[in-house]
Amino acid sequence: MLRVLGIEVASHVIRVGRVALERPVAWEEIAALAVREEIELGCVDAATEARMKEEVEEVARTRDTVGGVFEVVVHGVPPAWAPTSTGTSGWMGCWPGR
Questions:
Q1: What is the distance between the alpha carbons of residues 78 and 7, in angstroms, rounded to a whole number?
Q2: Pairwise CA distance, residues 12 & 33, whole Å
Q3: Among 2, 12, 11, which Cα is nearest to 81's?
Q4: pLDDT in tens, 44-88
Q5: For residue 16, what are the contacts with CB-CB under 8 A and spacing of at least 6?
Q6: Which of 28, 31, 78, 89 has the most other CB atoms within 10 Å of its CB?
Q7: Full-model pTM
Q8: DSSP code of 97?
């Protein structure tokens, strides 16, 4: 439904344990990740993803666990595209049956 409106949603991993992506990410990088055939950890930066994988392997050797953070990005949403305080306009007006 969102794609019909020109809106896309994608995610990518920005941290695993102590290893974090330390640079800004362009939408095009996230979108390219979404169409990759093979995705290991889902980080847009290959060098950072390799370090993240090392972190996971190290923790697995010690039979421990590690947390992570992923970012969900919504692209193509018009500015101020949200319901008003009365709830009568904004994005809700775009859904069928509204």
A1: 9
A2: 8
A3: 2
A4: 999 999 999 999 999 999 999 999 999 999 999 887 766 555 555
A5: 41, 43, 52, 55, 56, 66, 67, 68
A6: 31
A7: 0.76
A8: T
